[in-house]
């Protein structure tokens, strides 16, 4: 069984290095500030006994007043997992750091989120629409985008 | 081996052009294109006389319907199922699936059509040489089906190209595909090539 | 004197005989050698995630069928698992077994198709494909017996499956299970002892282990690269822990290894099926669940080992009848990430084969 | 050899009309050309039907059987349909080349049939350099294919056309060298004499030659596993991608006429041509042609396709040495051991063929690795 690591334990370890990074620790997830995302991710990836070398998925949820990005990290060596979340509270121009340098698997998923949710990923090498065509108005998965705006 | 840039050809301009084509097509195709062969149902009024030449031409056309590849989604597997040993569409001489639209007669539109795909389908249809027919296979091809209310789905192929035969089902079974093809043959049988002056 | 040469861009797809749907590959070629590719997808983007938000939980089950339309049963499973996790619904034991029987049959069907179309990409003029389809039809018959559909089954429900299997199902399945290993061996022999096939597959499109993990590749592709990672074992769900089976892995991670992993996985699936038939308990198949299900506020992620890789559903509920957010972790899409690294430097013909060996389904890539 | 070269002149060829044929040369020419073209077209239609039915059987299905008895009229329906379809010329195509290409591909094939003996003396002209004529003309088809690829102004078709030229250049050499073995045994370039010389079919005396010739000619007519020219899974339809209507029909005809030609040539060179007991000679030839074509279909429905570099490697590293060794062995036998009993030769040649193929297949690596960019 993949062990879901307790987020408070991880939070304790992170506190030494990134004292201001952690917003909240829930039972199943760890919510961090967007500014520290890349640093914490690379810490989680490179620390020997954590070694989250596999990024299972990235997704984004629109909570109307903020966007929440969800990263599920897995270690294929130690067989444990962690859900990392970050909240993006700039509804006009949401920007988050890109994870492509750490995990290549983030490439298409970030493009997908950019396409459907309209979140810009800083440092992504090829950030453009992936599913919809160039010139499509709006981002369909946002809650303010009702289902039948387009025809 | 290290590739220098992420993508040698980012092709941003190409993307933009394609986006414009899609947009133009979307605006243009809000109405359903009527079936050009609708007059066939009122056959008696027109009093069609078929000549022997017509008979031979129609025989040859309905006996060798070559399909073009246009299989976007789920229904494709029921088409392949129809071509597989069990249903064996080859009995009717239809196992030749031409990948090049120039040499094909029949387009079986098996699957959901999105606006991004629409210009390609239209182009394939236009590349096909006359005479050509279209079968809309499955609910998505007829009306958008389950995805009718989506932001990216074309509600039916008949917004883009004229359709001759509709086969309902999600997906239609191979038997119903064969029945639909049989209907199309009936339609071809009534066609008059000689009289049709356009 | 040197001739002036320049690379040229060629579009493979979206309508192409061997792109398995409407995938498009914008390839830059230097003669026959692929210098660069850019996968362009979205030609089948139907917005399933958005549509799902507008329908209630039960109405979303048919939508999941249409993701990976060659493996519909496997798509139902993680969705109902996610909802069950969210609403804390217990599943009767018999239903769990039936689900596993369906998922494993679906795995065989999907891998048959993957191997067949890989051979097709190699240019065998449909013959292996037709043989694989013959076997697939047998499995499809069984599915039809259970739920009346040939392709998109819509069989699983929250708390079980929609109805019990008919009486004649188990004997038919036993017959399938007893004959299938022979067919698999036969096909394996016919394909893998062909010199041209070996020359075309061996050493082509190598995906190194590190890159495979880093690119979040999953399923047979990951295992072909030498990572023993199968959700059925490492994060066992349903009642998989009661079965005895191996995870086939290979070492190099070339196209041939991916082919081998699929062939061996079919054998393992047959093994699981044999055990599941033996252990199948009597009893109910559907727990009592309100048709207007309102799960409590929260989120859940359930994943399974689908034929193509790790298929997961991330579900957010706001205690209404409709899901607040449904995200699908589509293995086909993420497996494509590594395509570019694998293809560059190979010939055009190899690019097609490498792409075929990934075995994607466009319904799942684009959603 | 020397006599046939020095005595070559057209009148010699024209004078080879059998004495019992009526009329003068030109009447013979006219009648026979019509018969020959009819023969080609009928056999092409039969070949198409045969191929589709047989492939159906290989793929555990029935194949066309609804149009006419046993689906016999299927190919006829196809032909009428293709001929009456719209003929599209792409706007940016090179019009002249596009128009000429199908003809350039078809005419040489038809011309080659002039020297193929359908039975004793039943041929348009009995050229004493028949083999040379066949080899020379059959290569011209590639020019037609290249013209089609270039004239279409399509990227897929130009890739297909390039592949065809590369393929032709590589496979022509082993092909010709394998024919030389037959010519050495016969001592003549005339196809009639080659048939006449086969007391036992040359496939027994020249197994290596047959092997190389058969594979080489598969490549020459772009049949599987060398169908890279129209590789459907890679370049869609290759050179004929933009052709429709009657032009496509012409290409189709050219392609299958080549197949008929190859079957006829293989039958003539290695299987004893029209000679055989009991049945009439033309029937023997047809039986042999269909047998050869059945093997081609079998290969087509079974084998995957080569990659371009593997295909070239196969020609230069595998077939060419085999052809050279065959040539050497045949010459040695003719020079030093002309009185040898043919059955000993048969046994020896087969032993050598098996040994060579074993050795070669172990050492030959089709190779072709990733290219650094």
Characterise this structure:
- The complex is a heterotetramer of chains A (151), B (198), C (367) and D (373).
- Helix content of chain A is 22%, strand content 28%.
- Chain A has 151 residues and is α/β, with parallel strands linked by helices.
- Chain A has one domain (3-136): Beta Polymerase, domain 2 (2-Layer Sandwich).
- The termini of chain A are far apart.
- The mean pLDDT of chain A is 81.
- Chain B is an alpha/beta fold.
- Chain B has a domain at 65-189: Rossmann fold (3-Layer(aba) Sandwich), CATH 3.40.50.12280.
- Chain B is built from seven helices and five strands.
- Chain B has helices spanning 12-28, 43-46, 52-63, 75-83, 118-127, 139-143, 174-189; strands at residues 67-68, 97-98, 106-110, 133-137, 165-167.
- In chain B, helix 3 (52-63) runs antiparallel to helix 7 and helix 4 crosses helix 7.
- Chain C has one domain: Cytochrome-c3 Hydrogenase, chain B, CATH 1.10.645.10.
- Chain C has helices at residues 48-54, 60-65, 72-87, 93-121, 127-147, 169-192, 195-201, 209-214, 220-224, 231-234, 255-279, 331-335, 339-343, 348-358, 362-366, and strands at residues 8-12, 24-30, 33-40, 156-157, 160-161, 298-306, 309-317, 325-329.
- In chain C, the strands form three sheets. Chain C has a three-stranded antiparallel sheet with strand order 1-2-3. Chain C has a three-stranded antiparallel sheet with strand order 6-7-8. In chain C, strands 4-5 form a two-stranded antiparallel sheet.
- In chain C, strand 6 (298-306) and strand 7 form a beta hairpin.
- In chain C, helix 3 runs antiparallel to helix 4, helix 5 runs antiparallel to helix 6 and helix 6 (169-192) packs antiparallel against helix 11.
- Chain D is mostly helical and 373 residues long.
- Chain D has one domain.
- In chain D, helix 3 crosses helix 13, helix 5 (95-112) packs antiparallel against helix 6 and helix 7 (140-151) packs antiparallel against helix 8.
- Chains in contact: A-B, A-C, B-C, B-D, C-D.
- Chain B binds chain C through residues 1, 3, 7-9, 11, 14, 69-74, 76-78, 80-81, 84-86, 97, 99, 111-112, 114, 116-117, 120-121, 124, 146-147, 149-153, 170-171, 173, and chain C through 9, 14-17, 21-22, 26, 28, 35-36, 38, 42-48, 50-51, 54, 62-63, 66, 69-70, 130, 133-134, 137, 140, 150-152, 344-345, 362-363.
Blueprint (SSEs and pairs):
The complex is a heterotetramer of chains A (151), B (198), C (367) and D (373).
Chain A: E1 3-4, H1 7-17, E2 22-25, E3 29-32, H2 37-46, E4 54-62, E5 67-75, E6 80-88, E7 95-97, H3 106-117, E8 120-122
Parallel strand pairs in A: 1-6, 3-6, 7-8
Antiparallel strand pairs in A: 2-3, 4-5, 5-6
Chain C: E1 8-12, E2 24-30, E3 33-40, H1 48-54, H2 60-65, H3 72-87, H4 93-121, H5 127-147, E4 156-157, E5 160-161, H6 169-192, H7 195-201, H8 209-214, H9 220-224, H10 231-234, H11 255-279, E6 298-306, E7 309-317, E8 325-329, H12 331-335, H13 339-343, H14 348-358, H15 362-366
Antiparallel strand pairs in C: 1-2, 2-3, 4-5, 6-7, 7-8
Helix pairs in contact in C: 3-4, 4-5, 4-11, 4-14, 5-6, 6-11, 11-14
Chain D: H1 2-6, H2 10-14, H3 25-58, H4 74-83, H5 95-112, H6 130-138, H7 140-151, H8 155-186, H9 191-197, H10 202-205, H11 207-220, H12 232-235, H13 245-270, H14 281-302, H15 308-336, H16 342-363
Helix pairs in contact in D: 3-13, 3-14, 4-13, 5-6, 5-7, 5-13, 7-8, 8-11, 8-15, 11-15, 13-14
């Amino acid at each position: 069984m993949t062990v879901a690591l307790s987020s408070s334990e991880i939070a304790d370890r992170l506190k030494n290095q990134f004292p201001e990074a952690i917003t909240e620790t829930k039972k199943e997830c760890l919510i961090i500030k967007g500014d520290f995302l890349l640093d914490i991710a690379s810490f989680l990836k490179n620390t020997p006994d954590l070694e989250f070398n596999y990024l299972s998925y990235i997704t984004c949820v629109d909570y109307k007043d903020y966007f929440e990005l969800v990263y599920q990290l897995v270690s294929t060596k130690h067989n444990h997992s962690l859900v990392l979340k970050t909240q993006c509270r700039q509804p006009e121009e949401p920007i988050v750091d890109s994870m492509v340098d750490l995990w290549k698997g983030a490439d298409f998923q970030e493009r997908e989120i950019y396409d459907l949710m309209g979140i810009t990923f800083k440092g992504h090498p090829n950030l453009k629409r992936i599913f919809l065509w160039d010139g499509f108005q709006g981002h369909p998965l946002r809650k303010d985008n009702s289902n039948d705006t387009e025809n | 081996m290290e590739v220098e840039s992420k993508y040698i050809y980012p092709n941003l301009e190409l993307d933009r052009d394609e986006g414009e084509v899609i947009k133009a097509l979307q605006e243009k195709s809000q109405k359903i294109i009527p079936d050009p062969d609708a007059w066939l149902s009122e056959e008696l009024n027109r009093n069609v006389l078929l000549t022997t030449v017509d008979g031979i031409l129609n025989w040859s056309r309905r006996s060798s319907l070559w399909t073009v590849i246009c299989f976007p989604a789920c229904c494709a597997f029921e088409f392949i199922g129809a071509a597989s040993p069990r249903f064996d569409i080859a009995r009717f001489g239809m196992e030749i699936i031409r990948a090049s639209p120039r040499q094909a007669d029949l387009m079986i539109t098996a699957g959901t059509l999105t606006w991004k795909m629409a210009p390609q389908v239209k182009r394939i249809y236009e590349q096909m040489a006359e005479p050509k027919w279209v079968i809309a296979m499955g609910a998505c091809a007829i009306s958008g089906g389950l995805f009718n209310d989506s932001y990216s789905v074309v509600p039916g192929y008949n917004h883009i190209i004229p359709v001759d035969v509709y086969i309902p089902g999600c997906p239609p079974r191979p038997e119903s595909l064969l029945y639909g093809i049989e209907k199309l043959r009936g339609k071809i049988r009534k066609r008059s090539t000689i009289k049709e002056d356009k | 004197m040197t001739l002036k040469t320049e690379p040229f861009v060629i579009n493979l797809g979206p309508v192409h005989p061997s792109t398995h749907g409407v995938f498009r590959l914008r390839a830059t070629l230097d003669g026959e050698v692929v210098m660069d590719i850019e996968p362009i997808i979205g030609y089948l983007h139907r917005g399933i995630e958005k549509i799902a938000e507008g329908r209630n939980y039960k109405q979303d089950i048919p939508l999941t069928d249409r993701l990976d339309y060659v493996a519909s049963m496997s798509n139902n499973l993680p969705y109902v698992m996610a909802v069950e996790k969210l609403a804390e619904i217990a599943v009767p034991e018999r239903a769990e077994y039936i689900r596993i029987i369906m998922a494993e049959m679906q795995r065989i069907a999907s891998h048959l198709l993957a191997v067949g179309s890989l051979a097709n990409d190699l240019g065998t003029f449909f013959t292996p494909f037709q043989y694989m389809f013959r076997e697939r039809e047998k499995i499809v018959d069984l599915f039809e017996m259970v739920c009346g559909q040939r392709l998109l089954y819509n069989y699983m429900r929250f708390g079980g499956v929609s109805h019990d299997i008919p009486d004649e199902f188990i004997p038919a399945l036993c017959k399938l299970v007893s004959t299938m290993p022979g067919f698999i061996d036969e096909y394996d022999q016919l394909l893998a002892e062909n010199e041209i096939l070996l020359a075309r597959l061996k050493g082509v499109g190598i995906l190194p282990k590190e890159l495979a993990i880093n690119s979040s590749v999953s399923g047979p592709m990951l295992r072909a690269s030498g990572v023993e990672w199968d959700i059925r074992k490492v994060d066992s769900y349903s009642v998989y822990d009661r079965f005895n089976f191996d995870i086939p892995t290979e070492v190099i991670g070339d196209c041939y290894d991916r082919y081998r992993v699929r062939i061996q996985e079919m054998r393992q699936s047959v093994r699981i099926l044999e055990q599941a038939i033996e252990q199948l308990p009597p009893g109910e198949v559907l727990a009592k669940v309100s048709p207007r299900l309102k799960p409590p506020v929260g989120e859940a992620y359930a994943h399974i080992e689908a034929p193509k890789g790790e298929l997961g559903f991330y579900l957010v509920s706001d205690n209404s009848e409709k899901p607040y957010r449904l995200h699908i972790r589509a293995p086909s899409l993420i497996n494509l990430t590594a395509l570019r690294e694998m293809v560059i430097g190979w010939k055009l013909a190899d690019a097609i084969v490498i792409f075929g060996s990934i075995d994607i389904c466009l319904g799942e890539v684009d959603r | 050899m020397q006599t046939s070269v020095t005595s070559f002149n057209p009148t010699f060829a024209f004078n080879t009309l059998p004495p019992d044929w009526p009329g003068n040369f030109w009447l013979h020419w006219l009648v026979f050309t019509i018969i020959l073209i009819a023969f080609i077209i009928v056999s092409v239609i039969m070949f198409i039907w045969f191929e589709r039915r047989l492939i159906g059987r290989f793929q555990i299905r029935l194949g066309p059987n609804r149009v006419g008895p046993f689906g016999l009229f299927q190919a006829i329906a196809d032909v009428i349909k293709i001929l009456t379809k719209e003929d599209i010329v792409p706007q940016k195509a090179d019009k002249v080349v596009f128009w000429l290409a199908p003809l350039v591909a078809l005419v040489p094939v038809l011309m080659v049939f002039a020297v193929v003996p359908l039975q004793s003396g039943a041929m348009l002209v009995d050229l004493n350099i028949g083999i040379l004529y066949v080899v020379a003309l059959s290569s011209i088809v590639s020019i037609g294919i290249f013209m089609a690829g270039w004239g279409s102004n399509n990227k897929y078709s130009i890739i297909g056309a390039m592949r065809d030229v590369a393929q032709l250049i590589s496979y022509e050499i082993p092909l010709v060298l394998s024919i030389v073995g037959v010519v050495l045994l016969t001592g003549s370039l005339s196809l009639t004499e080659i048939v006449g010389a086969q007391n036992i079919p040359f496939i027994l005396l020249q197994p290596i030659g047959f092997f190389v010739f058969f594979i080489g000619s598969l490549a020459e007519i772009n049949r599987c596993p060398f169908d890279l020219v129209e590789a459907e899974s890679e370049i869609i339809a290759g050179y004929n991608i933009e052709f429709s209507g009657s032009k496509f029909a012409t290409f189709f005809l050219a392609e299958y006429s080549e197949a008929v030609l190859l079957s006829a040539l293989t039958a003539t060179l290695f299987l004893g041509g029209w000679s055989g007991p009991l049945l009439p000679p033309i029937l023997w030839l047809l039986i042999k042609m269909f047998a050869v074509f059945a093997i081609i279909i079998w290969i087509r429905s079974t084998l995957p396709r080569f990659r371009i570099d593997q295909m070239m490697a196969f020609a230069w590293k595998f077939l060419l040495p085999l052809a050279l060794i065959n040539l050497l062995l045949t010459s040695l036998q003719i020079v030093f051991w002309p009185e040898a009993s043919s059955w000993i030769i048969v046994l020896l040649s087969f032993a050598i063929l098996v040994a060579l193929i074993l050795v070669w297949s172990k050492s030959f690596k089709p190779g072709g690795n990733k290219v650094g960019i």
